[in-house]
């Protein structure tokens, strides 16, 4: 039996949320906006453009389109400088064994990320070869919680959308998976990701029996 296994990137495979945070915090500081870790939760799974709008709304700040474009460019340059230094050591614990298990059992694997930097990150941490399909921020027009990114991923794997399995650390991502009638596996706080069909604190606690059961379900 085969199931489409779709992984989110930031916060599921690698802990890049901390780099997004640092880059956004710098922007917020420039604008005189207080931006905390708690605020940052709202940006998870959210596109770059939408993230800036959320920060501006937090501070009740209005700027011109030109200023927005400049800040978006600055944010990405700062973020790229962080991910430039990434290597395999930044793969979150438990992810590699799960990918290896799925590969060994011939399960189709895809990436479903809102990030436009997904490919270079997978390259940096040397995981590109595990993925049969990649759908990222460059491919979709509708951001999570719209299911487009996951629907495209299942399609690229030549698998049905219904019953595909999605690993997500964001509320928007869990909602996107649920809308697509996929099986949502929340990675992170259960209090935050309570809409997910399954909840785990991290990949360390996901064992092969669980994965095997998902395949045979
Ligand atoms: C992921 C992250 C978000 C980020 C988005 C866009 O979904 O969780 O925090 O804003 O990707 O990333 P990008 O690399 O294109 O700016
Ligand atoms: Mg994420």
UniProtKB/TrEMBL annotation:
- Annotated keywords: Carbohydrate metabolism, Isomerase, Magnesium, Metal-binding, Phosphoprotein
Task: Cite the Gene3D superfamilies for this sequence.
Answer: HAD superfamily/HAD-like, Putative phosphatase, domain 2
What is the catalytic activity of this protein?
beta-D-glucose 1-phosphate = beta-D-glucose 6-phosphate
- The UniProt record lists the EC number as 5.4.2.6
Q: Name one GO molecular function term.
A: beta-phosphoglucomutase activity
Q: Which cofactor does it need?
A: Mg(2+)
* The UniProt record lists the keyword Coiled coil: no
> Would you identify the family this protein belongs to, as annotated?
Belongs to the HAD-like hydrolase superfamily. CbbY/CbbZ/Gph/YieH family.
Q: Which NCBIfam families match?
A: bPGM, HAD-SF-IA-v3, PGMB-YQAB-SF
Q: What is the name attached to this protein's record? A: Beta-phosphoglucomutase
